[in-house]
Design brief:
Elements (H helix, E strand, L loop, with lengths): L2 E9 L5 E9 L6 E6 L14 H13 L3 E7 L1 H27 L1
Antiparallel strand pairs: 1-2, 1-4, 2-3
C-alpha cells in the first residue's frame, strides 16, 4: 500500500512476536496512513474515530493472541530521512533569510 513509517509489535505468552505497520501513501494530498498487519491480510478502514494505537493493539491481542508488551517505533529509514532533511531545510531557510536581508 505504502511506505511503513511506524511499527507496533506485541508478543504472545510463548514469546512469538507480531507486528502491525502504519503505512503512508505519499501520492495523496494530504498523505494517507493505513494500518496493515504483517502476518495476515488485516487492513481496516481508518474512517473511524478509534485511535490507531488502540486498533493495532486490539488486533494483535484478539487475532494473534499477542497481548504482552505492546510497543511502537518509527521505521529506521523514515527516521533517518527526517534527521537528514531537518538540517538541510534549516540551512536553506537561513540562506533565504540572509538573501532577503541583503535584498
Amino acid at each position: 500500500m505504502g511506505t511503513p513509517v511506524r511499527h507496533f509489535t506485541a508478543t504472545t505468552p510463548d514469546g512469538q512476536e507480531f507486528t502491525v505497520n502504519i503505512e503512508r501513501d505519499f501520492r495523496y494530498d494530504p498523505y494517507r496512513d493505513f494500518l496493515v498487519c504483517a502476518h495476515c491480510d488485516w487492513s481496516p478502514s481508518l474512517l473511524t474515530m478509534k485511535k490507531i494505537v488502540d486498533m493495532a493493539g486490539e488486533h494483535l491481542a484478539s487475532v494473534h493472541g499477542a497481548d504482552q508488551g505492546l510497543s511502537q517505533q518509527d521505521n529506521e529509514a523514515f527516521r533517518k530521512a527526517r534527521l537528514i532533511m531537518l538540517p538541510i531545510v534549516a540551512v536553506l531557510l537561513v540562506a533565504l533569510f540572509v538573501y532577503l536581508q541583503n535584498f
